[in-house]
Specification:
Blueprint lengths: L1 H9 L9 H11 L3 H31 L5 H38 L8 H13 L4 E2 L2 E2 L2 H11 L7 H8 L21 H5 L4 H10 L5
Antiparallel strand pairs: 1-2
């Protein structure tokens, strides 16, 4: 604006100093210098080119949909969406099944079964029972195992009976006559009183005269 005031002065039009601020303000509302004008034009041209590019891209995109039934597109989108949802559900189900199996294996480590077949059968029944896994633990598992032991005790080792048998006479591992001098003669009652099967058979073989 100062340049414009100087230009007016060169033509004999001089603006008083105390009025120059008001003149500059008034002119700024209606006048733009060349640089400002060019800047505004450049912005308009940039906006024009941007919208032109968008229009051309939209036109190309629309050409790609020529001859395509919108209803068919919607059906295909719905189909693929359903497939993606099913795939996600299948993945989640397999992850849950794996975590459940790992948790079940860990929790059954302290349970003794009479055979591997019995263990597999019990595990299958537990999986079919519909118990839920939460925070790495199978809810209600202990109660279910207790019910199974009552219903089919033959599948589980009777730990109390096992302890009783372990507390009986230890297996015979030494000679019948530990003091030497040959095998000691035993009566039938003494022989049949031997708990260890191997020792009893050995005693029978050494005392055949008693039979």
């Amino acid at each position: 604006m100062q340049k414009l005031i100087e230009t007016l002065k060169s033509f004999g039009i001089e603006i008083p100093a105390d009025k120059q601020a008001d003149v500059k303000k008034a002119l700024s509302e209606h006048y733009k210098n060349t640089a400002e004008h060019n800047k505004a034009i450049s912005k308009l041209e940039a906006d024009r080119d941007s919208w032109k590019e968008k229009a051309e891209n939209a036109e190309e995109t629309l050409k790609g949909f020529e001859g395509i039934d919108p209803a068919q597109v919607q059906n295909e989108l719905a189909t693929w969406k359903k497939k993606a949802e099913d795939a996600e559900k299948d993945r989640d189900a397999k992850l849950y099944e794996r975590d459940f199996a790992d948790a079940l294996k860990a929790e059954l480590e302290g349970v003794k079964f009479t055979s591997e077949a019995a263990k597999k059968s019990v595990m299958a029944d537990i999986k079919e029972a519909g118990l839920k896994l939460k925070d790495g633990k199978i809810l209600g598992l202990n109660d279910l195992i207790s019910q199974m032991k009552e219903k089919d005790a033959s599948a589980f080792v009777d730990e109390k009976q096992e302890q009783l048998e372990a507390g009986r006479a230890k297996p015979f591992t030494g000679p019948l006559n530990p003091n030497g001098g040959g095998a000691k003669k035993m009566t039938r009652e003494e022989i049949f009183g031997i708990k260890d099967t191997t020792a009893r058979r050995q005693a029978i073989a050494e005392n055949l005269s008693e039979f």
